[in-house]
Design a protein that fits this description.
Helices cover 16% and strands 27% of the residues. It is α+β, with helices and mostly antiparallel strands. Strand 16 and strand 17 form a beta hairpin. Helix 5 runs parallel beside helix 6 and helix 7 packs across helix 8. Bound molecules: 2-acetamido-2-deoxy-beta-D-glucopyranose (11 copies).
Length: 648
């Protein structure tokens, strides 16, 4: 089969709805990489992808080459990666190709892949799912008039093209057609399980063809035949993910002729993601895989069929800086800061048992010769590090925005973090508090900065908070964005903060002062020399900044020997920063009980900053670094008279 290149209609940029019939395709033969009915060919030789997924934007830049060498040493030959648009275009037209120590330097990722002698498959989305905030869509998309994501909508397609065009400028030299490692690019992501608008996927495919010069493919959940049919783009290779037994059989039965080619299981789930919740576990155990011998049997089946695979995930990494998404099947299930995924290479880049089993399995497919596994340094263990309260979050607020009604986080120009809504009571109100159209996501309620309770959409039935406010009382609602849904419903409306009006009983409250608190990094003015303070923490205190410090020998800091899992003992829920890096959320409910601290970000003298949202009388917190991570659950202290979700 030949690779079909498409031409983007000029209509698209003019903002007109694209009809799949309005553009034509002209065939070109791709000599560097191509496929026929049963095989991929790389430089003329039959090629089976022994793939694994790693996303650069979840891995510290300093560790990219280490993780790639470990992939190669396990026997992989191809790296599949999602690219997250929302991390790159942080505001309309504002591009950041460096973010967090260079994790956004996508071109450098492909240079490293090339240096390692590996091949690559590009998965640019724009929707990637991937347990990322809104599946990789920038939060500001919700403010674009008339936009509907993942549809044949001119606004969405135009902004998607800007993204793909800018991405192309950074990676085009790494395409196989230019002598680089990128073999092919995915169109959309599991679109067939979302909808079936073939005009939309054809238009997106045309945009990719305009900016990239490589084979395209689609990837859909293979266990459900309609997904394959709905997700297909005529002339584009159609592949599956999930269970390879059902998936390959369904591909044979249901793929249309112009989408047929060699088989690829583009996401072979070797394990599963983890969400926060008192009943959530690490890792989720059901379906195919999750059993080492069954995992390997599935891979053998794929290779015996002449197929290719990508292990999802080979190495998961970390949702730094609130990058996580969430699921919602009735209640929000936010994805944990850790994206360990119980993958062959764990979050700290150390191998689990399955890594060695896979290496043994893959060795014969690599002619019995694999590179040595790079040395694994032991991880850092620390003493207890005492963290003292140094400032109240509400004592140092940015300038307020005033409005007659609550504005959403996105209307305030904010994507992630927290927004504080304040209302000063002119006269008495008594009754049940109702926050907009529901909590988006976690609302901590204060009267005069005294905590009254928590309303959170993780609960099946959130707490009912009744208030009796008198003239002069200040009602504060601190709303946390816990991660926009990346899969399941509702995908279209992912605005955060407060959407709708706030009532006490039947009284609608207005006007409001609003404070955007995205806190990508801690406030610069926290004073690390404060070792004792007059701050007295009560059971109902408002969010408080705690700080502490620790030192390391120069021989290990800045290296993987300083990698550690840091636990915040005594904390309820909050955010951890080390040396200014946002390492994500912690939450005592678990199952994640510690956070990965990359040793490359540590120095001889290190500053820990914690934002504890519910200090609950703790005059100090204690941080401790360990080489082992505990996964367990605690009772949810905020689930007062409510029913907790997250049965998994
Ligand atoms: C890059 O994005 C900007 C908008 O953010 C757009 O104007 C420009 O055309 C894009 N560049 C390419 C090459 O597509
Ligand atoms: C949005 O749609 C409405 C109704 O179709 C239309 O009147 C308006 O001009 C559109 N706005 C933009 C910016 O496209
Ligand atoms: C894994 O699967 C194999 C084959 O089905 C089975 O024999 C074995 O008991 C399973 N192991 C576990 C730990 O469940
Ligand atoms: C293994 O050896 C065969 C025969 O020499 C060669 O064609 C093939 O490319 C080699 N495969 C790898 C992965 O090195
Ligand atoms: C809250 O603070 C205001 C202003 O200081 C005061 O008038 C009011 O009485 C306080 N309310 C409570 C419940 O302490
Ligand atoms: C930090 O606090 C100490 C002790 O109160 C004080 O001497 C010092 O000036 C403060 N430093 C800054 C930068 O505020
Ligand atoms: C800090 O606390 C220690 C021990 O309680 C005490 O000796 C010292 O005087 C305190 N320093 C300040 C500046 O309050
Ligand atoms: C604070 O909370 C603790 C633990 O729940 C409780 O034992 C204590 O009585 C509370 N203190 C006050 C003043 O309410
Ligand atoms: C990762 O591997 C290291 C070294 O074997 C181990 O200490 C740590 O507990 C592992 N972490 C996870 C999350 O599995
Ligand atoms: C809150 O009140 C509503 C109706 O007023 C009720 O359906 C719900 O069960 C209550 N929630 C809890 C946690 O009691
Ligand atoms: C969560 O687990 C607790 C025990 O740990 C149990 O009592 C409760 O019913 C569980 N909730 C759900 C929704 O499964």
């Amino acid at each position: 089969m030949q690779y079909l290149k498409s031409v983007l209609p000029a209509l698209l940029l003019a903002g007109t709805i694209v009809d799949a019939t309005t553009y034509t395709r002209s065939a070109t033969v791709n000599s560097s990489f191509g496929y026929d009915a049963t095989s991929f060919y790389l430089h003329g030789e039959a090629f089976q992808m022994l793939g694994g997924q790693m996303d650069p934007q979840r891995i510290p830049r300093e560790y990219w080459s280490d993780r790639l060498l470990k992939a190669k040493a396990m026997g992989l030959n191809t790296i599949f990666s999602y690219i997250y648009w929302n991390e790159l275009e942080t505001a309309p037209g504002q591009w950041d190709w460096n973010r967090i120590s260079g994790m956004n330097d996508i071109g450098a990722w492909y240079q490293e892949i090339q240096n390692a002698g590996l091949q690559a498959v590009l998965r640019p989305g724009p929707y990637v799912c991937g347990e990322r905030d809104w599946g990789g869509f920038p939060a500001w998309l919700s403010q674009v008039p008339n936009i509907t994501v993942r549809t044949n909508n001119p606004q969405f397609l135009m902004l998607s093209e800007y993204y793909l065009g800018n991405l192309s400028q950074h990676v085009q030299q790494y395409q196989v057609t230019k002598g680089g490692p990128i073999l092919m690019a995915q169109v959309e992501n599991e679109y067939g399980s979302f909808s079936n608008d073939h005009d939309y996927t054809a238009a997106l495919s045309a945009i990719i063809a305009k900016h990239f010069d490589i084979v395209q493919y689609t990837n859909d959940g293979g266990s459900t035949p309609p997904n394959i049919v709905n997700g297909a783009v005529p002339g584009i290779l159609g592949e599956i993910d999930g269970d390879p037994y059902a998936g390959f059989t369904n591909l044979e039965k249901y793929a249309e002729s112009s989408s047929r080619g060699p088989k690829l299981d583009g996401e072979y789930y070797i394990n599963w993601l983890t969400t926060w919740g008192p009943n959530a576990t690490y890792p989720y155990v059901s379906g195919i895989g999750y059993n080492d011998s069954q995992n390997i049997a599935g891979l053998k089946y794929i290779l015996d069929q002449g197929g290719s695979f990508s292990i999802y995930m080979f190495h998961g990494g970390t949702n730094f800086a609130f990058g996580n998404g969430g699921l919602n099947f009735g209640q929000l299930e936010p994805v944990t800061s850790s994206y360990d995924y119980a993958a062959p290479l764990n979050e700290s880049g150390r191998p689990r048992d399955i890594y060695w089993q896979l290496r043994d399995f893959l060795l014969p497919y690599q002619n019995g010769s694999l590179p040595e596994y790079p040395e694994t340094k032991p991880m850092l263990e620390t003493e207890d590090i005492v963290l003292k309260p140094v400032a109240g979050m509400f004592n140092d607020l940015p300038p307020a925005t005033f409005s007659g009604w609550p504005l959403s986080m996105e209307q305030l120009g904010q994507g992630r973090g927290y927004t504080l809504y304040r209302y000063t009571t002119p006269s008495s109100h008594t009754g049940l508090l109702k926050v907009g159209d529901g909590p988006r996501d976690r609302v901590i309620v204060y009267v005069n900065d005294t905590m009254k309770g928590v309303i959170d959409n993780v609960y099946v039935y959130p707490q009912n908070i009744s208030l009796s406010l008198h003239a002069g009382d200040v009602l504060s609602l601190l709303v946390e964005n816990q991660g926009r849904v990346d899969f399941s419903t509702p995908l279209y409306d992912q605005r955060k903060g407060i959407v709708g009006d706030v009532y006490i009983g039947t009284a609608m409250l207005a006007p409001w002062s609003m404070y955007a608190l995205p806190i990508p990094s801690p406030p610069a003015n926290l004073n690390f020399s404060l070792t004792n303070t007059s701050l007295t923490i009560s059971n109902t205190s408002s969010p408080t900044w705690y700080t502490g410090s620790f030192s390391l020998p120069s021989s290990i800091c800045g290296t993987a020997a300083a990698d550690t899992y840091l636990t915040i003992n005594g904390g309820t829920k909050g955010v951890l920063y080390v040396n200014g890096y946002n390492l994500g959320r912690y939450w005592s409910v678990g199952p994640q009980q510690s956070q990965y601290v990359p040793g490359v970000w540590l120095r001889e003298s290190n500053e820990i900053v914690v934002l504890e949202l519910e200090p609950r009388g703790k005059q100090e917190l204690v941080a401790r670094g360990s080489g082992e991570r505990a996964w367990f659950n605690r009772v949810d202290v905020d689930c007062v008279g409510c029913v907790s979700a997250n049965p998994n």
